[in-house]
Automatic annotation (TrEMBL), chain A:
<feature type="domain" description="Leucine-binding protein">
    <location>
        <begin position="34"/>
        <end position="394"/>
    </location>
</feature>
<dbReference type="InterPro" id="IPR028082">
    <property type="entry name" value="Peripla_BP_I"/>
</dbReference>
<dbReference type="InterPro" id="IPR028081">
    <property type="entry name" value="Leu-bd"/>
</dbReference>
<protein>
    <submittedName>
        <fullName>ABC transporter substrate-binding protein</fullName>
    </submittedName>
</protein>
<dbReference type="InterPro" id="IPR051010">
    <property type="entry name" value="BCAA_transport"/>
</dbReference>
<comment type="similarity">
    <text>Belongs to the leucine-binding protein family.</text>
</comment>
<keyword id="KW-0732">Signal</keyword>
<dbReference type="Pfam" id="PF13458">
    <property type="entry name" value="Peripla_BP_6"/>
</dbReference>
Automatic annotation (TrEMBL), chain B:
<dbReference type="GO" id="GO:0015658">
    <property type="term" value="F:branched-chain amino acid transmembrane transporter activity"/>
</dbReference>
<keyword id="KW-0067">ATP-binding</keyword>
<dbReference type="Pfam" id="PF00005">
    <property type="entry name" value="ABC_tran"/>
</dbReference>
<dbReference type="GO" id="GO:0015807">
    <property type="term" value="P:L-amino acid transport"/>
</dbReference>
<comment type="similarity">
    <text>Belongs to the ABC transporter superfamily.</text>
</comment>
<keyword id="KW-0547">Nucleotide-binding</keyword>
<dbReference type="InterPro" id="IPR052156">
    <property type="entry name" value="BCAA_Transport_ATP-bd_LivF"/>
</dbReference>
<keyword id="KW-0029">Amino-acid transport</keyword>
<dbReference type="InterPro" id="IPR027417">
    <property type="entry name" value="P-loop_NTPase"/>
</dbReference>
Amino acid sequence: MERRTLLKGLGLSALAATGCSTSIRGSGATGTDTIVIGFVSPQTGPLAGFASGDAFVVDTIRKTQAFAGGITSGGRKYTVEIVVKDTQSDPNRASQVARELILQNHADMIVTSSTPETTNPVATVCEAQGVPCVSAVVPWQAWYFARQADPAKPKPFTYTTMFFFGVEQFGGCFVPMWERVPNSKAVAGMFPNDADGNAFRGAWPDIIKDAGYTWVDGGSYTNGTTDYSSMISKFKEEDCEIFINAPIPPDFNTMWKQAAQQGFKPRLATVAKVLLFPADTVALGDLVNNIATDSWWGPYMPYTSSLDGSTAKALADAYQTASGKQWLQTLGSTYSLFEVAHQAFTAVDAPHDRKAVAALLQKMSYAGISGPLDWTKGPVPGVAIQQPVGVQWKKGTDFPYEMVVVDNSLNPAVPVGADLTPTNP
Amino acid sequence: MLEVRKLSADHGQLRAVHELSLVLEPGQVHAVIGANGAGKSTLLRAIAGLHPPSSGSVLLDGEDITREPPEQRVTRGLCLVPEGRRLFSSLSVEENLLVGRHRAATGPWNLGKVYELFPWMRERRRQPATQLSGGEQQAVAIGRALVANPRMLLLDELSLGLSPKIVQQMYALMPRLLETGMAILLVEQDVSQAIRVASRLQCLLEGRTTLDGRPRDFTPAQIEAAYFGLREESE
Amino acid sequence: MRYIAGFIVILLAGVPYMLGPAVEQPLVTLFSLVAMASWWNLLAGFTGLTSFGQQAYLGVGAYGLYVLALAGIDPFVAIPLAAVLAGVVALPVSFPVLRLSGGHFAVATWVLAEIFRLSVTLSPAIGGNTGVSLPGISGYLPLLRQAVVYWWALAIAAGSVLAVWLLARGRYGLAARAVGDDPVTAASSGIRVARIRRWAYCLAAAGTGAVGALLFTHTLYVQPGSIFGVQYSVLMMFMVLIGGLGTIEGPVAGALIFFALQQTLAAHGPWYLVLLGAVAVAVTLFAPRGLWGHLGRPLFPIAHLQER
């Protein structure tokens, strides 16, 4: 007998001997006429930028007929309750609120969004407790491998699924844009010495080489560095005209300002992890003009809600009207989390049957406000891939800068809104 | 027998004790007197192991203990009653005494004997040490050192901050301690008290010995001169 | 009184049968607070070592558990092993940090915890900055797993209080309190100060490591930024100070007070932190010996008296 099973057997049999496991009180599904959906996101704290539209989206969802009128499942009508929890950007708290949702609110499903720090603790708790869970806005590699008992030998999860994209989509999104700007074929990379930075530093060189470019690493720096002179002069020496990065936003602001002062003006900057949201652009002012990044959702997406058929543009507009603030990409992701929940609950016979709901999530395929999401074709089980498009921040009409689609190589269904303009002519 | 050979000790750049030597034998009271800053306390602390000397050596029964940590000297029978009593403030009277018993040698002293010496202490043994008066605290500090059964007792500024009456009571104890074969090394500013009990007198000035011998061999004027360093000027 | 405490523990052990996971969950948090505060009190309250870096050993416990579970050991069996590991890690660390005292010691322990955090962040093999899930729990039914976590939490809390009490009322405790009051005089009274401090540091590390491992089995997910957070040390200090420094009941009372405040005030968002701060200031000003030190009689006496 293997040591592992032996030890486990010892632990379990000791408990069984005292008759514990049979008489412990449970708090499982209650079999009521209400379906409870828990929603977890970082509404306060350093990650709050991701979740600034979440309250609006949840409000919108609650008002749709699909939710307000109840969900019919297995020929029976259920009222729907959405319980919103804030992680305060703390993974510990994320795990705690997930447990509260399961034990106190008796959630039938938990949906969660924005960064591994949020989704991974929540998904881990759900997987262990056997509660269906859908995550979004997290690179699938970070979501899938980080939660494995042994990342070298990954095993599919039973109760947890997600939709978003991964590291490979950055290459697929950025390289076509580089191709369209005549340049020196040298790529400057600014990657800090942190988890994301090192992940990108590992993935990019191959992509760059395959595309016929040379890779210039600006050097592994510590988050919070204030002087980027040596990095910038290296980029200038190597005559880099393409710029990529994955820093934390304040570092990018510092670096990009210094680059402008010291005369490093790459033809095209395609950034990751920064400038995802309108709020990020304020600090840079006009320096943000024509910086390119990836976009997985926006009003330019030709998609409609699976709940009431309203368009992506309508959702963005409604948010801008209600809040007075510029639309952001996570609106669509959060909205789709509830679409997925609705799809799952209407398709099963018993919404409180967690196994059945989880099994359905694993093989779902539908189209909603985030476009077609297909869990049968993921890179790994439980993952549906979105195809992002290349966008640039350009001077806008309603707001100082707006995201405009300039490249749709990965997702031709999205119409191009403007020409790709070099970041520095 | 405790022997100090050419011991020097510094406070940073300042030399506080300058190549001092002394010998302490059982049954003796050796009094080190001197003005404030003469280096008396530093000498005592160096002997107790609380101040690392810069040169010289300390020998106990012929064995070099210069580099030994203070707690080890306690087991060898070298105990210090520190300046300002320094009782453990969160401990009761009896607990303070028990700390002294922590690594005690076998011998005549124990808590019962200390309570016989200071009868009031038994009734108040549960009180926090901080609630005692200065004289009572000094008694506990002495008791704490006694219960370790020292062969050499180092007393640092016994009279500091105490009323003359209490000081007299403290000094009245000394013969009873000597009876058991204990030796006492006394550091004192109060010269008159020291002279009365000392079998040997050593006067320090700026870290150097200015006078050394039996008290009755010196006139008060000589002692005063050595104490204040007036010898050269008067000559 | 002590029998009542024992009875309460037995009563609490029955919670999984009588009340279920909804009650277990907050109690696990409470128990981990009690254990954390007790061990911090051994350091600061008894030995005079005010550490700001005990979170280092929460992390070592949690990540130690991860490594042990990865090696195939049942996580619940591995909790005591993780605790021992934390104690062993603390031993070499104790040599440099215990050369310092007071504020320097506090800062050094904090810096050390940050070094631990950074090392984990930069180690992809144990999840880096993203964190890791606890392996080896798939064999447990959720209900049983929660109950086992709960029992472990209860055992660690009760065990910690008992262990610190036994230490404090023994010969070691008297020496430790003397060292805490005045290390120089303690040394000149024959106490081996360095050894007393080293034991306190390593034992507190092991106890805190057990809590770290427990928290990991509870949250099932650990991330360096969170488990190595300095807020844990602030929390430990808060609980011990308002409860009563250097008493056995103080940390327990402090944990209960903190837990009650957290449960009632958490709804008010960040304001609850402001209120906690105000409570701490008020207690330090008006009851410097802590609430228990002022109001309560010791249920677990630590006073030493010669037998007679």
